[in-house]
Amino acid sequence: MHNKFSNSLIAWYQEYHRKLPWRETKDAYKIWLSEIILQQTRVQQGLSYYLKFIQVFPTVFDLASATEDEVLTQWQGLGYYSRARNLHLTAKKIAFEMGGKFPNSKSELIKLKGIGDYTSSAIASFCFDEPTAVIDGNVFRFIGRMLGIFSPIDLPETKARINIFLQEHFPKKNGNTFNQGLMEMGALLCTPKNPNCEECPFKMSCYAFQNNCQADIPVKGKKIKVRIRHFNYLFISQENNIALQKRKGQDIWKNLYEFPCIETDQEVSQTDLQNIINEKYKIKNPIISSIANYNHQLTHQKLKVTIWKLDNYIAEMPKNWIFASSNDINNFALPRVLSRFWEDFSNNGLQLQIV
DNA sequence: CACTCGTGGCC
DNA sequence: TGGCCAAGAGT
């Protein structure tokens, strides 16, 4: 009776799971890379990045030997860029301080940057067969619905309760398949919307199915608040070179490149912006014109992005500006909204109004 | 603990 | 369309 859940789950997984490249290996480097890429990211979105990374950086030494800029450029467009920065930090630690060998236990893995509770369990289980249960968003949803858990998923006690259940049902053999099955259930059948309960082998013992409350579990905690920000980018092109700067500070897109940016509290008029440019960069009569607008919607922010073309000749650059040749722009990691602008600009030329 | 970090897809 | 969501982790 106690083994029935794990036996059924393992059997279901073996029949219905998707074939994915990181499931064909026990190489800790590849498993680790896939787990980082898939944090808060769908398989469909992360797959091409995984394939690109193992091609460009086949081993942890290749990744460690690259610069952070190179890693960020490969990561461009995937979001949550702290993952890429921590990926590089941890690669250097493993390559240069640990002889290229990954720690083989959850307790050691979790000490590494970018590897938390979920990822340490995943690597320990998938690579080293450590009997530790993974708890990610899929598992919260699947087990939460099965057991009828209505406490918010962001509470530690909710996670603890799920962990107790999983420990009680953790199999003596095939623990890694059990873990894969937990997540694959959440990804294929026990989905956030319109779960496919008819094909679920656990529907007879599932609280949510029996009580028809699948949509009410898991219970989300707080509501998302969206902050509106106004980014005014200066597109400055001189002699086929374009001004860029590196974003710093504890903010979005840290260590990515962007055009010189003037952030304002509200939308600004052309004359307002000219005055700001005059004050900030000591450019006497800035000649600017708006060439593109984007509403860039993020999870917690809505960015109103305006690209302004600045036509003055600039004799003395601020020290943090870099001038990149237009052929070289693609070698800089840009936020999605700017790589999209650059694509539009390269294709269409100067006059474009995108919203 | 509460908040923050991206992007694309879905309805 | 806007809100929700996805293999979480750092601070």
Your description of this structure?
This protein has 355 residues and is α+β, with helices and mostly antiparallel strands. The chain has two domains: 2-216, Endonuclease III, domain 1; 227-347, Nucleoside Triphosphate Pyrophosphohydrolase (Alpha-Beta Complex), CATH 3.90.79. It is 43% helix and 13% strand. The strands form two sheets. The protein has a four-stranded mixed β-sheet with strand order 5-1-7-6. Strands 2, 3, 4 and 8 form a four-stranded antiparallel β-sheet that branches. Strand 6 and strand 7 (301-310) form a beta hairpin. Helix 1 (4-16) packs across helix 11 and helix 2 packs across helix 3. The longest helix is centred in the first third of the chain and has 16 residues, at 82-97. It is elongated and about 75 Å long. The relative contact order is 0.10. The structure holds a DNA duplex (11 and 11 nucleotides).
What order do the SSEs take from the amino end to the carboxyl end, as H and E?
A: HHHHHHHHHHHHEEEEEHEEEH
Mean pLDDT figure = 94
**Count of distinct strands:** 8
Over the alpha carbons, how many angstroms does the gyration radius reach? 25 Å
- For the biggest β-sheet, the strand order reads 5-1-7-6
Uncertain segments of ≥5 residues (pLDDT<50)? none
Supply the helix-strand structural class.
alpha+beta
CATH class of the largest domain: Mainly Alpha
Brief sketch in words of this structure:
This protein has 355 residues and is of the alpha+beta class. It is 43% helix and 13% strand. It folds into two domains: 2-216, Endonuclease III, domain 1 (Orthogonal Bundle); 227-347, Nucleoside Triphosphate Pyrophosphohydrolase (Alpha-Beta Complex).
